[in-house]
Queue: 4 jobs
Job 1
Amino acid sequence: MKHFLVLLMVALTSLRSSCAVTNGATNAGKLLDDELAAWANLPPVFFCGEAVPVHEEAVARRLVSALVQKSSYNQALYEIRQRAASFFPLIEPIMERYKIPADFKYLPLVESSLRGNAVSRSGAVGYWQLMPATARELGLTVDNQNDERQHLLKSTDAACRYLRFLYVRLGSWTLAAAAYNNGIGNLLSSIKRQHESDYYYLHLNAETGKYLYRIIAFKELFDNYVSYRPVLPLDVWKTLSEPLKNIKPAILDEEKPLLAESMIIAETQLAANQPVLANPATAKRQQETPLPNAADVFRGGIKARLAKAGVLKRGQVWVFQLTRDGMADGKTVDQGDVLYAIVEDIDPKLNKVFLRGDKLYSKENRETYNMTLSAVDASTGRIGISLPDMEQVKAGWISTWKVL
């Protein structure tokens, strides 16, 4: 425990220092490296009853990093605690009904800071940040008149059913959390490619690789802050230990602005006045539509952000920028490379738009490659984007592509 406390103190102190980005950051990093031999002395940490292997250097690094990040937003911590105290009593019975471990109540803190009007750049909305297609498959209404992703109780019920589905498919709550963040198709692809089924040892994209640690960090700071008393800055300790006052029932229909938007993870963008909604003429409620089987989801794929949208018409060119490194069509692709895609087809019967990537411009090599990629629904891995979802598309939309 001694080495653990020393390590956390170094990390927290370096984070609070205004000069940490210069020489101070380098020195702090060296001090952290000097303490790595003591990871075996970390106290036990659990998520949903599964032990977190904090004896592993990489695991301990990520956990400490998440703790440092969350404790740095002291201004927002108290309000987050108040919101949690109001909302948790409403969502915990639903979680218990579906036998979802209580630790998952911290997931919407990471996703949206428990804000119903949170909207991501990729189109996820609500407390649990559900994508439109996934929400509809879970029986929620998503249209111009009503977006049930913004309804606390209904969206919680849907999220719990989704988590239960993921757990049954994957057999692990840690993997279920990862799949919730990145899609079961992407996760199964990583598991098959790496021959590894333990979340803590999988090499995942940066967001998913940190996702579970962010949930655990909230749990540790809110439920187990006493263990960090010797190392937490005094103001953070007071914030976490101060009794909550004037706890009001959760406001379900009218959300007030969050005190500090920086508390929401960088991937979540707020657009309170312009919620992402679909067209009521094509949106359909699907109460009993099953989620895709593991065999149906795609294996592999790259992510790209929309830079310039064309007209939604066959033959029109749309421009995307890759958001991370990867492999596509046998070539190494890099973050920032430009993907040129065309609207290949618009099928009103299937209610889908089919986008095909034809060329990719490599910024590093300054060359243009012929490419054969197709846009897929990230929640199912199936080719094509639903027309209701396309009506939400604007600059910044994150799309998923796979090699044909």
Job 2
Amino acid sequence: MSSNPVPQNKYLLFTVGAIGTFMATLDGSILNVALPTISNDFAVSISMISWVVVSYSLTLISLMLLFGVWVDKKGYFFAYRFGYILFIIGSAMCALSNSYEFLVFSRVIQAIGTAMFAAIGPGMVTSVFGEKERGKGIGLMVMMVAGGFMVGPPLGGFLLNYFDWPALFVINIPIGFIGLFMTYKFFKSMPKPSSARKLKIEGALSISIALVSTTFCMSQINSYPLTDYHVWGLGLLAVCMFGLFFYFESKPKTALIGLQIFSNRQFTSSIGAMLFMFMALSGISILIPFYLETIKGYAPNQVGLFLTIFPIMMFVFAPLSGRLSDKIGFQQLTIIGLLVLIGGMYFLSELTVDSTQNYIILSFVLLGMGVGIFNTPNSSALMGSVTEEHRAVTSSILGTTRNIGMSVGVAFATALFTYLQTQNSYLGDESVIFVESYATVIYCSIGIATISLLFSFIRGQKKVSEVTN
């Protein structure tokens, strides 16, 4: 694919991808507000209801690399067309769910559609905007991510005040049809892939199974002892699949992207920084609505307003950080962003039953600023570390890494939180037990975010425009 095939239509083409990104993040942020309500309706625990989130992420992890390779052969029009269709079907199934199990299954169908277009979003943006405006383009896409998160909570709270939770999925359907219409109208102008490379599926399939097995294994630790086959069996499968992946990647005939890419410090450090940042963030984010609703007693619409603060900060700072990264490079910005994020996490660790609204708001402001400053230059650094030939695959690696971090973070945090609640049961008061357990989870998340900070330090400093593909 050429680096900038249709510059005169770049904003129309960007809009097609942006709608998909907006729709996916809108769905996730709306759902966070509704998790306590859905948990009560189906009479399931926090650790069980987390599977409504984890099943979605696991599906993305298992398919994004495969779809990234596939789209490299089939083209962006193919990915967005079928992505929107499957997401619309999955959203309708979620809205019609009358059991916890069917809702989880429907989320899997929904995630298959999301994986189609989420796998290649950054690659499409880079192709449309070109090298010199990569930071700008990715910054605009991050704005759409923030926009989905920003609209989701208040919209979810509003809908829950007047309708049942299935309405939160119905809202996706008209947005999906708009994206589908625009895909057919504008995306046919994108040229078909010119690559004659063989479709190399072995590496993508093995790493997908390895990542899903690893994430699923971690989620089972809270339910089974380490000696149980549910845990060690999945762990063994993951090790074998990782071994197969490295074997396939060492062979030129089967290599998806090649092991030599991991010797690229910019590529490896960007992946590592992103992975651990999302692990730290998602681990605490899933518990925040429960704190606001069950401990502070806020109504769903009030919870939605609180959760809007985080994406508003992302919406403001992500494009500014992206444009600045095109001029000064990415290392300083990613480090500053992570330090601000860690500051917000520390404020959250000090939450009590009596914490004021202003204190909670300040915590969310710091979290949103930190992610907004960090995410765009880090993504731009990753996309600028590879050749055009590997851009679609690298785009799917970016999305896969993000979802690995999110699913592992959620699985780890909910398992640890459930364990800590049992250990802290002697405190008696349920609110105190919740706060004490949550604080420990946040301290662990701060440690994970520090690992992300270390990756940003070792990456080095370059202007994105100076990166040699």
Job 3
Amino acid sequence: MTKNDHIQALVIARLETMPENLAISIGKDGNFNKKDLIKHVKKADAIGKKMVKVELNYLRSLKTITQSAINNA
């Protein structure tokens, strides 16, 4: 597995934890449900790439927050 495959699998795993009835709006691209988002990530199309970028930014921010909390403890 490549690095991108691992990242894609991570994003899909996180999406799978979402409630079935939750929809996410991606700006002018529209609203997407969980199944749609997973399909887009698997295809690695424009929507899928946006979701990967959003998830990676979120995870990086968690890392920064956690490191800051540890350093200030």
Job 4
Amino acid sequence: MKKPAFLLLFSLLLNSVPLALADEEAQSEYFQQITALQHRAEKLASNGLDSNNYHLVKSRTWLNFALSEAYDKDTSGFIPAAIAQAATSLDALENKQAVISMDTPTQISGSESVRPDLWDKIATLKKHTKFSCAQRPIAEAEVYLVWIGHEKYESGWSHAESYVNGAEDRIYAAKVAIDNCTPPAVKLAQPPPPLEKITLSGDAMFAFNSAKLIPSALWRLDTLADDIKTAGQLEEILLVGHTDNISSKGYPKHNQIISEQRAESIKEYLIGKNIPAEKIHASGAGSTQPLVKCSTKLKKAKLVACLQPNRRVEIILHGVKTTAVNKGSAK
């Protein structure tokens, strides 16, 4: 009786090997497709397409979430569906289509439709006459809601609900952008604003795997706040949190959450220093945009040290500067 059972088990294990290899090949292909599409998006931006363009932002956001799920080895069908959405937008932009559809599916393969009330708010914002001023947060909110639907599909609403704040924040940011929007005719008459980018080391701002500011970080933010106030006519401050690919929780989505929380911590501190809240937009990229790559064979202490440059918060300033921002505060 034991021998047939053993043979059956051996047969099942043997048959599972090709499936595992197929999964690995699929994941490798996903990474290649995502990288190729990211390069296409970068080329469009470098050739003069507004980085806040609704379709460009939406394609990049689809790719960010596809990459996050690829690292998580997702097999629900979400990754190829997200890649297809990004490719469709990039194809239209590259072909300079006169009219590009702004429809976004409330669910794709591997996801469920969630929060119809938020989708209704987004639909109203997209019809606003000043939509052009809120393209980025609206595009991000749409894709974010689909990703939340994926989290519900995978782990249930009690898990997915913790991500809803990210979508609500982007919808709020869109409303603020529209409320403070300069009429397009006036805005077009102005020269394009210069871009200033500052990078703050995550290790200098937060304890490892934490989003709480450490005391020694406060002077850097105080100096940054003073510089921002005297830097000129700043229209927008973008805070983007980044992490390494190490997660104490054991899955990359934890990195996405903590990257958002770190950006929000800095946002709240700057608001407390009288920087206008409506000008600050915080978001997280998790571990999807590393500056360095390190061998996974390193012991944890050495791996943490090697990946240090990836743990950072990038601060992007849009506007017209009359004085230079003091970069001595950004380490």
